[in-house]
């Protein structure tokens, strides 16, 4: 009898709940969900979903083995309209340095420079409190971040840039997918989560190291820090540093959305080499250069990109070294400098036959299928050519590579963010 009464009560409660919700017992989905449009990050261009033929455009038999033609489809994404500039990268460096200051100051004054996370109880850095000069000058841990007296030039007090380290957490989703498909898996998140420490300051000596018997000392001395070069593309940044920048930029933007109690966005990252090529072509199929035509000069004889014309006449196109971003016309997507100025890192590993075995849907190659380990693939694809390259290398379909731990005076990067949804034209 008691069981019968209990069942009657539960049945009545379920009827009342269904009536009270107004759904008449129908499946209508979880209610109260917000309408959300993917906000366009500042300084980016929307690249729509589409299909295009990738690969070489020249009558070059050896290169046809490396860049065979293939039709692929790519999902929409946001892409920086220019390369990351010195000033934008400097914001990253300064933010990391500020965090290092506050972390060290909090060891002596935790109430001022730290706060406790209510959920975990861990100490978090307080970015609201202004740093007091007296705390800064007296803190011994802060003093350790400066060059010692033996290493300073002209007895100037300078930060030891080798000690500017960005620490971040890396989640390997491919490893997670592999581990979770194993029968009876009992893996924890720690098995595919790792912590990275990356020295992020650009190598400012690259202009001298890249060229023997060449006077490039002025570029070494002023290119990264001088206000004149604020809007020039950052160079001397290796693939690992570019990836660290993307992580910081993602966290920086998502922290704002968290404060506003808004949904976060997908990660900033380096583009795959096929996203890059698709974006460079600007929606035009089989075009040799981003501007659409087969020539590197317009009808008036003006160069359309910053590269190496003729035989050593670097200045014929308007610049000997990298030039200010957006100095030339954009392509049909609104992207600047997809050819020339500086070559650009992609997230993809380089393999000569990638075009042949990569999928035709969002093609990419980052992992060795046998080892499932990105760290074994040290060669990373770069695209676009640079100020020091001849016209062949600024071709949309030309592929080449650099090692991920190398930095030079002709390679920079730009970020992309995968678009959430079918199209930016959708109402929701």
Look at the structure and give the mean pLDDT: 88
CATH class of one domain: Alpha Beta
Helix and strand element order: HEEHEEHHEEHHEHEHHHEHEHEEEE
Residue windows where pLDDT falls under 50 for at least 5 positions:
none
Q: What is the number of helical segments per DSSP (H or I, 4+ residues)?
A: 12
State which percent range the strand residues make up: 5-15%
Q: What is the gyration radius calculated from CA atoms? A: 26 Å
The residue fraction in helices comes out at 25-40%
Q: What is the annotated CATH architecture of one domain?
A: Alpha-Beta Complex
What is the SS-derived class? alpha+beta
The separation of the N and C termini measures 53 Å
Shape: globular
Across the major sheet, the strand order is: 1-4-14-9
Overview of the molecule:
This protein has twelve helices and 14 strands. The protein has 428 residues and is of the alpha+beta class. The protein has a domain at 51-84 and 232-428: Alpha-Beta Complex (paralog of FGE (formylglycine-generating enzyme)), CATH 3.90.1580.10. The strands form five sheets. The protein has a four-stranded antiparallel sheet with strand order 1-4-14-9. It has a four-stranded mixed sheet with strand order 12-11-10-13. It has a two-stranded antiparallel sheet with strand order 2-3. A hairpin with a 6-residue loop joins strand 5 (114-116) and strand 6. The chain is globular, with a radius of gyration of 26 Å.
């Amino acid at each position: 009898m008691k069981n019968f009464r209990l069942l009657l009560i539960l049945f009545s409660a379920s009827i009342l709940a269904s009536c009270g919700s107004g759904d008449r017992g129908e499946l209508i989905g979880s209610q109260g969900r917000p309408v959300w449009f993917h906000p366009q990050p500042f300084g980016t261009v929307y690249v729509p979903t589409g299909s295009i033929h990738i690969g070489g455009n020249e009558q070059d038999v050896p290169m046809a083995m490396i860049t065979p033609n293939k039709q692929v489809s790519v999902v929409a994404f946001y892409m920086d309209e220019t390369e990351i500039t010195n000033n934008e990268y400097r914001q990253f460096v300064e933010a990391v340095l500020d965090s290092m200051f506050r972390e060290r100051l909090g060891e002596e004054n935790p109430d001022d420079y730290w706060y406790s996370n209510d959920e975990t109880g861990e100490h978090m850095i307080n970015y609201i409190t202004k740093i007091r000069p007296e705390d800064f000058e007296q803190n011994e841990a802060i003093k350790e971040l400066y060059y010692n007296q033996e290493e300073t030039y002209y007895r100037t007090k300078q930060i030891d840039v080798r000690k500017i380290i960005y620490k971040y957490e890396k989640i390997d989703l491919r490893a997670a997918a592999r581990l979770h498909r194993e029968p009876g898996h009992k893996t924890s998140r720690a098995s595919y989560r790792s912590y990275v420490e990356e020295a992020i300051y650009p190598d400012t000596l690259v202009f001298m190291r890249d060229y023997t018997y060449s006077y490039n000392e002025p570029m070494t001395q002023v290119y990264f820090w001088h206000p004149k070069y604020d809007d020039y593309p950052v160079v001397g940044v290796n693939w690992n540093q570019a990836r660290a920048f993307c992580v910081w930029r993602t966290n920086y933007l998502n922290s704002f959305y968290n404060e506003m109690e808004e949904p976060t966005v997908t990660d900033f990252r380096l583009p795959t080499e096929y996203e890059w090529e698709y974006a460079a072509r600007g929606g035009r199929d089989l075009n040799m250069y981003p501007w659409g035509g087969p020539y590197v000069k317009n009808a008036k004889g003006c160069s359309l990109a910053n590269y190496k014309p003729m035989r050593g006449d670097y200045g014929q196109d308007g610049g000997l070294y990298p030039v200010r971003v957006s100095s030339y016309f954009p392509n049909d997507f609104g992207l600047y400098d997809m050819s020339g100025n500086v070559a650009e890192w992609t997230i993809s590993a380089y393999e000569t036959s990638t075009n042949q075995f990569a999928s035709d849907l969002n093609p990419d190659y980052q992992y060795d299928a046998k080892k499932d380990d990105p760290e074994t693939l040290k060669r990373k694809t770069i695209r676009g050519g640079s100020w020091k390259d001849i016209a062949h290398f600024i071709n949309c379909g030309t592929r080449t590579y650099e090692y991920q731990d190398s930095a030079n005076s002709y390679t920079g990067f730009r970020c992309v963010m995968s678009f959430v949804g079918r199209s930016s034209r959708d109402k929701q």
